[in-house]
TrEMBL record:
Organism of this sequence: Pricia antarctica
Record PTM N6-(pyridoxal phosphate)lysine, positions in chain: K207
Source species, domain of life: Bacteria
Protein name: O-acetylhomoserine sulfhydrylase
Annotated coiled-coil segments of the chain: none
UniProt keyword annotation of Transferase present: yes
Amino acid sequence: MSDPKFSTNALHAGHDVKAHGGTRAVPIYQNTSYVFNDSDHAANLFNLSETGFIYTRLNNPTNDVLEQRLAALEGGIAAVVTASGMSAISTALLTLLRTGDHIVACNSLYGGTYNLLSVTLPRLGITTTFVDASDTANFTNAIQENTRAVFVESLGNPKLDVLDLKAIASVAKAAKIPFIVDNTVATPALLNPIEYGANIVIHALTKYINGNGTALGGAIIDAGTFDYGNGKFPEFTEPSAGYHGLVYHEALGPAAFIAKVRIEGLRDFGGAASPFNSWQIIQGLETLSVRMKHISENALSLAEWLQGRDEVTWVNYPGLKSSKYFKQAQAYLPKGQSGLITFGVKGGFESAKKMADNTKLFSLLANIGDSKSLIIHPASTTHQQLDDAAQESTGVTKDLIRLSVGLEDLEDLKADLETAFATLEK
Ligand SMILES: *Cc1c(COP(=O)(O)O)cnc(C)c1O
């Protein structure tokens, strides 16, 4: 087949049936190590002159299928899967950056990422300037002499801002620094950031890609489009003391980054994916395009319905005509705008908290992207450690409820929210 499309790749890419004993479903290789033919074979594997499996922290046949599949679905040259979304982000950044480097990031980021960039990485001497992504000039103005990465989320959570990836990519390109896009909320079924100039794509596989809330996982996907030989990345152009003098850019060309992620990043930081989790994530990935279509339809209908409720003061969903991101969503997410909705409840903090406490079908928990519908009141839970200014900049207001809409029947979801609304004072 010359150029299979998305759903075909989601089911088949990366799985050579013959190479896996004729298995129609991808098998779990639940092992840590691989027998070498002899010591020369082992030496060849270690010095990269031959490809093959060494140790599951570095590579594993089940993880390998998932990696090839994700690379195909995002249009990258290769991928590495990791233990969680956060390990994908930290491994990618620590592979790229050193003390003294600087990141420019959008200010509506997943809480874990925000903390990594604002608290933990500064301890290692890597700092971040957070900018409001609604104006691309903010990225240009924040870039410094020592900036070595631009980091954004394609569809921010909980702000649900759809970023102008193309414009931000051109800022990063002009500054000769890689553009990293966390595409977790949009998923590759709805958006491919590489088409708009992303150099590295990140996923928390934990969310929609798995879809069942059963396994943590992360992925780093390399577009293979960034020139690490441009003089700004000595880590890639000078002999690596960590890998017997290997000069990544020279030896591996466009695959320099993703190779370093695997052979140094996974080796040294150890955030390897569990093959069992990868296997579960592969089951989810098979149906991703069908689920994202249905989830997006459910979410849009529910958002429209919420707009007509007396208890609701505002609704934010990028698929709504009233959303200030509607135009951008039509351009970047024409196939659907995913499953997250935020809305304000009359009565503010107390009412919103009560609302979240009184649904039954919508489960109160701190995850997104499950096939089961979820609800949370961020101001009293996920974002409670942030002060008012930080809450404001991440788009969390006191009255805000976030829904992660699943695959249940729409009428049941509405009935559940109606029951919760009925508990609020008029
Ligand atoms: C959940 C999430 C992460 C982190 O993923 P984990 O698997 O929980 O570590 C990163 N980015 C986004 C946008 C997320 O939603």
